[in-house]
Structure formats: structure tokens, C-alpha cells
Amino acid sequence: MSPMSFLIPDDMAESLSRLARDTGHSESFLVLEAMREYLQRESWQIEEIKDSLRELEAGNTASAEEVNALWEKWGKGAN
Prior knowledge:
By secondary structure, this protein is mostly helical. It has a domain at 24-73. The chain is built from three helices and no strands. The chain is elongated, with a radius of gyration of 22 Å. This is Ribbon-helix-helix protein, CopG family.
């Protein structure tokens, strides 16, 4: 593992300490879990955006009529 040092606001430090105490986990464990979840979510989102841009560049798009037809099919059309 690689060491990392950073400052956090006092209110976050207090919340982290309280959560660590209440859950029986270390503060390091909780920070690592939070970072892991954040990185997974952000990485997934960026990959989805990249995939969408590749589809757009390849011309794989739907017309407004096709999109509207799907919205109507799914019961989400404008009323």
C-alpha cells in the first residue's frame, strides 16, 4: 500500500471518528471504503461517457422520432 497524507475539515474528522467508533471500524478502513466506492462509481461513469461518445462519433444515434416513439411505448410521453 502507498502512504497518503491530507487534511480534512474538522467537522468531517469528527464525523469520521464518530462513525469509526460506532461501527468498530478504523478511520483508515472507512476512508478506504469511501474512496473505493467513489473511484468505482466515477470510473464507471467516465467509461459510459466515453462509450457514448464513441457511439456518437460512429453515427450510432437515434432520431427524435425514434426517441419519442420509445418514450410513448414506455408510457413516458408528454401529456
